[in-house]
């Protein structure tokens, strides 16, 4: 069923996906799909839950600079390839129309960015970042300029932009812009 | 016609908008709408063109820090209010399904961010930023972490996040992370 949802989203996007498509490509009867998943929204949310169950881990290059750049470049690589980009793009589109898809997408990205925070924990251990760095904000700042262009402003992205985004996030970290405000200190 | 498209997008989003709705609310006959705009995609693209014809100008607080913070807070203010947020959100959603809407959205944001670059020009004139600052990248970096959460990760945003985003962009600017690579210099 999940493969059918993913291939349907890849081929037709959302809302081009239909229960009929999923039934035909999964061999599961329509009435069963409705009974178990409650319809398309439930199927999409379930497929997104599955997408979050992979074993992806963030890059570990030995430096914060290298890790942030590698993270940013992974975004470019993932969305430069139309085949790889189709399903994630369809999930992001589905969230505009389905509150259940939006909740599932939020859970997916929250968990994904939590994995990315390992990059910051290692940087703190190496003395490259302050212990009170807002890791959640920092890892989102790296991909945000790329995601903005991909899904909002519809502008092209490339490796140079990824590197610039990583460099900006690194500079902001070094300047203390991602320090949590709860710990006042002299800078 | 454009008011009907905007109110329809606000009420029903995209693809909830129909030619019938626009015809009914604009008093323009369906066949005329099809003949002049070629259908919904053309109507949405035209409404977006109109949205870009406002007289909005970026904040001018007297400092780069103040201007970037005000820009970021405007994003929070605009999308915190469901009434104000409905049409822009529907345009962003429409771009996932309509290449014409995507082109119109890209043109809208390109022009909008070009207006924002006045903030950087003033900062350069005051000596607050290097003359070769990549103003286009900088102004996008300010709103990107907010737009990421609004339209991709579906996470909440608030004024504190706006201020953090502005502070990060400012720190990156001061550190030279937005300097154009074409002009090597010692830092």
From TrEMBL, chains A, B:
DNA-binding region, residue range(s): 18-37
Record-linked PROSITE patterns: HTH_TETR_2
InterPro entries referenced in this protein's UniProt entry, alphabetically: Homeodomain-like_sf, HTH-type_TetR-like_transc_reg, HTH_TetR, Tet_transcr_reg_TetR-rel_C_sf, TetR_C
Residue ranges constituting the HTH tetR-type domain according to the UniProt record: 1-55
Entry keywords, A to Z: DNA-binding, Transcription, Transcription regulation
Single GO MF annotation: transcription cis-regulatory region binding
Cited Pfam families: TetR_C_11 (PF16859), TetR_N (PF00440)
UniProt xrefs under PANTHER family: HTH-TYPE TRANSCRIPTIONAL REGULATOR RUTR, TETR-FAMILY TRANSCRIPTIONAL REGULATOR
Name of this protein: AcrR family transcriptional regulator
UniProt organism field: Streptomyces spectabilis
Native organism taxonomy: Bacteria, Bacillati, Actinomycetota, Actinomycetes, Kitasatosporales
